[in-house]
C-alpha cells in the first residue's frame, strides 16, 4: 500500500467516524429533548384537562346534580370530542372501570399520562394519550437525511483529500524517481526540489550524498581505466618479445640449420630475454613504489650527481655526450635510491634523444623556496601532443628507437611514481629539435626531515 | 614456392618470419615501413604480403584502405587480439589474420592456404631423382610414376610444405590425418617407412632424436 493511500484511508476513516459519531450524538440529544418536551406538554395538558373536568364537575355539583356515570360520560365525551380534533384521545375510568374511552389505534406510537382527578373526584382516573407519530416520522426523515448527506460528503471529502495528499506527497515521488535513476547508475542525476520543508532538506542532503557518490565512482572508474590501460599495454608489450622467444626457440629446436643461423637465432633469444627482464624489473619497481613508504635522508647533491654519472658513464661515452654537473644547493632530502633512479631514467632518455657532441646538464638549485633537480638536453625534443601522455606507462614517443635501446616504455612512468612518492611536482618542457628539460620540484617540507 | 613480402618494423619478428620462410623454400623481401613496402611492390613480383598492423607512420590498416585491391593477397599480423580489429582486417580485404604470439608452423600453414587459393602456376618439388607435382598429385622417380595411397600423399605434402622443420608425430597426425583422427603415433611411423621405401628417401626424411621427422631439402 502506498503512503498516500494509507494516509488517505486513515484520514478519511477517522474523519467520517468522528463526524458521524458527533452527528449521531447530537441527533440523539435532540431526540431526547423533543421527547422530554412532549412528556412535559402531555403532563401539563393532562393537568389542564383534569382541572377543567374538575371545575366542570364542581359546577354541576353546585347546581345540585349528582354525579353519575351518565353525567361523567357526557362531560368526558364533550372534552374527548373537542380534543380528538387535536390528535389527543382521552379516557376516563371509575376505579378501573372505563367510563369513557376513545377508540384509538393500538399500534400507533403515542405518549400517555394517567392520573386521578383532584379530590373529591380521586376515584376517577383520566388517561391522556397523544399520538407522536409525526415526531418519529421527523426523526426518520432526519436519519435518512443523515445517510444521504454521508453518501454525498464522503466521496467529496475523499476527492479533496486525494488532491491535497497527492500534492503534499509530490516531492516524495520526485525524490523516489531521482533516487531510482541514481540507483540505476545515472550518477549525474540530481533531485530538483525547491521546497522549503523537510522534503527540501532531504533533497539537499540527498544531492550532497549523490555528489560524494559520483565523485567516488568517477575516481574509481578513472583508476580502473588507467589500470586497464596499463594491463592492455602490458599484454601488448609482452606479445612481441614472447613471439620472438617462442619462434626462435622452436626454430633452434626443430629446424635444419647451419651455424650462422644458429647464432642469429640464439642471439635473438638472448636479447629478447634481456628485454623481458628489463620490463619485468621496471614493473616490479613500479609496483614496489606504490606500496612502500620512502626512506628520507639528507643527500649531498654532489654525491648524488657523481653516482649517477658513474652509472651512466658507459652510455655517455658510447653516445659521445658530455655531462655537465651544476649543484647550487648542498643537499636535498629524499630517498637516495629513488632520486638516483629518477635521474638515471631522465638521463637515459636525454642520451637517446641526443646526437654525438651535444651536452646534457644535471642541475640542482633553489627556486620559490623549493629544491629543484633538473635534467636538460638539447636533443630531439617532442611535440605538445606527446607531452600530455608521455608519463603514461608504455607510452613511447618513438617506438622503433625505444625498442632499439631496449626500453620498456616505463621510464617516465617510474619518474612520475617517484615524484608522487616524494609529494614533489614534475615539470616537463620540450621543443622539437631544441631539447627537453625535466624538473623534479621537491617542496619545502622535503628540504628538512619530515616532522609528523 | 612463392615470393613473400614481409612488412614488419620489429627486427626480431621480421627475422624470425623470414628465416622460417627461407627454411621451407620461399623467397622473401623485407620492408620495415610503408614506404619501403611500396618501393618493393613496384619493383618486384610479389605473391603474398605479410603485413604488420602496427607500423610506424602509416599502420597496416591505413595502407590497405588506400590500396583497396593491391592484386596481391595479404595476411595481417598483429598484437591486437580484438574481434573488432579482425573484422576490420577482413573488411579491408585481407585474406587472413594472425595474432602474436603465433606458432611458426601455424603461420606457414596459413601462408600455404592463402597461396593455394591464389597461386597461378604450380611449382614442382624436386629432390634428387624424385620429381613431385603437388597440384597434379603425380610423383615420378627417375621418370617412373610412383603410386602412393591418399594418406601417404597427404603426409608427403605436409612434409614438403614444412621442409627443413622437424615435425612431431602428433603434429603430423594433426596435419595429415586431421584433428578428428584418434590415431596412434605408430601409424605415422608406418607411413613414413612406406614413403622412404617408395621414394628412396631413407636419408632425406630424417628421424630427429626426441622430436619426430624432418624432410631435408637443398637450401
UniProtKB/TrEMBL annotation, chain A:
Keywords: ATP-binding, Cell membrane, Kinase, Membrane, Nucleotide-binding, Phosphoprotein, Transferase, Transmembrane, Transmembrane helix, Two-component regulatory system
Family annotation (CDD domains): HAMP, HisKA
Organism domain of life: Bacteria
Domain spans labelled Histidine kinase: 233-446
GO MF annotation, one: ATP binding
Membrane topology listed for this record: Multi-pass membrane protein
UniProt-annotated location(s): Cell membrane
Primary location group: membrane
Catalytic activity: ATP + protein L-histidine = ADP + protein N-phospho-L-histidine
GO cellular component terms, A-Z: plasma membrane
Catalytic EC class: transferase
Domain HAMP: 166-218
Sequence intervals crossing the membrane: 7-27, 145-165
InterPro entries: HAMP_dom (IPR003660), HATPase_C_sf (IPR036890), HATPase_dom (IPR003594), His_kinase_dom (IPR005467), HisK_dim/P_dom (IPR003661), HisK_dim/P_sf (IPR036097), HssS/ArlS-like (IPR050398), Sig_transdc_His_kin-like_C (IPR004358)
EC number: 2.7.13.3
Protein known as: histidine kinase
Originating species: Paenibacillus graminis
From TrEMBL, chain B:
SUPFAM superfamilies: C-terminal effector domain of the bipartite response regulators, CheY-like
The keyword Transcription belongs to this UniProt entry's keyword annotation: yes
Positions of post-translational 4-aspartylphosphate modification: 52
Domain OmpR/PhoB-type: 122-217
DNA-binding region: 122-217
Superkingdom field: Bacteria
Gene Ontology biological-process annotations: regulation of DNA-templated transcription
Record GO cellular component, one term: cytosol
A matching Pfam family: Trans_reg_C
GO-annotated molecular function: phosphorelay response regulator activity; transcription cis-regulatory region binding
Keywords attached to this entry: DNA-binding, Phosphoprotein, Transcription, Transcription regulation, Two-component regulatory system
Matching SMART domains: REC, Trans_reg_C
Every Response regulatory domain range: 3-115
PANTHER family xrefs: PHOSPHATE REGULON TRANSCRIPTIONAL REGULATORY PROTEIN PHOB (PTHR48111:SF40), REGULATOR OF RPOS (PTHR48111)
Protein's name according to its UniProt entry: Response regulator
Amino acid at each position: 500500500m502506498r503512503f498516500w493511500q494509507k494516509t488517505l484511508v486513515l484520514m478519511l476513516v477517522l474523519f467520517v467516524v468522528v463526524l458521524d459519531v458527533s452527528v449521531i450524538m447530537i441527533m440523539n440529544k435532540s431526540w431526547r429533548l423533543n421527547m422530554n418536551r412532549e412528556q412535559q406538554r402531555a403532563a401539563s395538558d393532562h393537568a389542564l384537562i383534569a382541572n377543567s373536568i374538575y371545575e366542570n364537575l364542581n359546577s354541576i355539583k353546585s347546581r345540585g346534580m349528582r354525579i353519575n356515570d351518565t353525567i361523567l360520560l357526557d362531560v368526558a365525551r364533550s372534552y374527548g370530542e373537542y380534543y380528538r380534533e387535536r390528535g389527543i384521545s382521552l379516557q376516563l375510568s371509575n376505579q378501573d372501570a372505563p367510563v369513557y374511552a376513545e377508540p384509538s389505534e393500538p399500534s400507533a406510537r403515542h405518549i400517555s399520562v394517567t392520573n386521578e382527578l383532584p379530590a373529591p373526584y380521586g376515584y376517577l382516573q383520566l388517561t391522556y394519550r397523544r399520538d407522536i407519530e409525526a415526531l418519529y416520522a421527523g426523526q426518520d426523515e432526519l436519519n435518512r437525511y443523515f445517510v444521504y448527506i454521508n453518501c454525498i460528503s464522503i466521496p467529496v471529502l475523499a476527492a479533496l483529500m486525494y488532491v491535497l495528499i497527492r500534492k503534499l506527497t509530490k516531492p516524495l515521488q520526485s525524490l523516489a524517481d531521482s533516487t531510482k535513476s541514481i540507483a540505476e547508475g545515472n550518477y549525474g542525476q540530481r533531485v530538483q526540489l525547491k521546497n522549503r520543508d523537510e522534503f527540501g532538506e532531504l533533497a539537499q542532503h540527498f544531492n550532497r550524498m549523490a555528489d560524494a557518490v559520483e565523485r567516488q565512482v568517477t575516481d574509481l572508474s578513472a583508476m580502473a581505466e588507467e589500470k586497464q590501460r596499463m594491463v592492455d599495454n602490458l599484454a601488448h608489450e609482452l606479445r612481441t618479445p614472447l613471439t620472438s622467444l617462442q619462434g626462435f626457440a622452436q626454430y633452434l629446436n626443430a629446424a635444419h640449420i647451419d651455424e650462422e643461423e644458429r647464432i642469429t637465432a640464439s642471439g635473438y633469444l638472448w636479447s629478447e630475454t634481456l628485454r623481458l627482464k628489463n620490463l619485468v624489473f621496471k614493473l616490479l619497481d613500479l609496483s614496489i613504489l606504490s606500496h612502500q613508504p620512502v626512506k628520507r635522508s639528507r643527500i649531498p647533491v654532489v654525491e648524488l650527481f657523481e653516482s649517477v654519472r658513474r652509472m651512466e658513464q658507459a652510455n655517455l661515452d658510447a653516445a659521445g655526450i658530455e655531462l655537465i654537473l651544476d649543484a647550487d644547493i648542498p643537499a636535498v632530502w629524499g630517498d637516495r635510491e629513488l632520486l638516483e633512479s629518477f635521474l638515471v631514467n631522465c638521463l637515459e632518455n636525454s642520451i637517446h634523444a641526443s646526437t654525438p657532441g651535444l651536452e646534457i646538464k644535471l642541475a640542482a638549485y633553489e627556486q620559490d623556496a623549493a629544491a629543484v633537480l633538473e635534467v636538460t638536453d638539447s636533443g630531439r625534443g617532442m611535440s605538445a601532443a606527446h607531452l600530455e601522455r608521455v608519463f603514461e606507462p608504455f607510452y613511447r614517443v618513438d617506438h622503433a628507437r625505444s625498442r632499439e635501446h631496449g626500453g620498456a616504455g616505463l621510464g617516465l612512468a617510474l619518474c612520475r611514481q617517484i615524484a608522487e612518492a616524494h609529494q614533489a611536482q614534475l615539470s616537463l618542457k620540450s621543443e622539437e629539435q631544441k631539447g627537453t628539460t625535466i624538473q623534479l620540484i621537491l617542496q619545502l617540507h622535503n628540504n628538512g626531515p619530515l616532522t609528523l | 614456392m612463392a615470393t613473400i613480402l614481409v612488412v614488419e618494423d620489429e627486427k626480431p619478428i621480421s627475422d624470425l618470419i623470414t628465416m622460417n620462410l627461407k627454411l621451407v623454400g620461399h623467397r622473401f623481401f623485407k620492408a620495415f615501413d610503408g614506404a619501403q613496402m611500396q618501393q618493393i611492390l613496384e619493383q618486384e613480383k610479389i605473391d603474398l604480403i605479410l603485413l604488420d598492423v602496427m607500423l610506424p607512420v602509416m599502420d597496416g590498416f591505413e595502407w590497405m584502405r588506400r590500396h583497396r585491391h593491391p592484386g596481391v593477397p595479404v595476411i595481417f599480423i598483429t598484437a591486437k587480439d580484438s574481434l573488432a580489429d579482425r573484422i576490420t582486417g577482413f573488411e579491408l580485404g585481407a585474406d587472413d589474420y594472425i595474432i602474436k604470439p603465433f606458432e611458426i608452423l601455424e603461420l606457414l600453414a596459413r601462408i600455404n592456404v592463402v597461396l593455394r587459393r591464389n597461386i597461378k602456376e604450380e611449382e614442382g618439388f624436386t629432390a634428387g631423382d624424385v620429381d613431385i607435382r603437388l597440384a597434379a598429385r603425380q610423383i615420378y622417380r627417375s621418370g617412373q610414376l610412383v603410386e602412393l595411397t591418399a594418406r601417404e600423399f597427404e603426409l608427403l605434402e605436409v612434409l614438403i610444405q614444412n621442409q627443413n622443420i622437424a615435425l612431431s608425430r602428433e603434429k603430423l597426425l594433426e596435419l595429415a590425418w586431421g584433428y578428428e583422427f584418434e590415431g596412434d603415433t605408430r601409424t605415422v611411423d608406418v607411413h613414413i617407412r612406406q614413403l622412404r621405401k617408395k621414394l628412396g628417401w631413407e636419408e632425406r626424411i630424417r628421424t630427429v632424436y626426441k622430436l619426430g621427422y624432418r624432410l631435408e631439402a637443398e637450401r
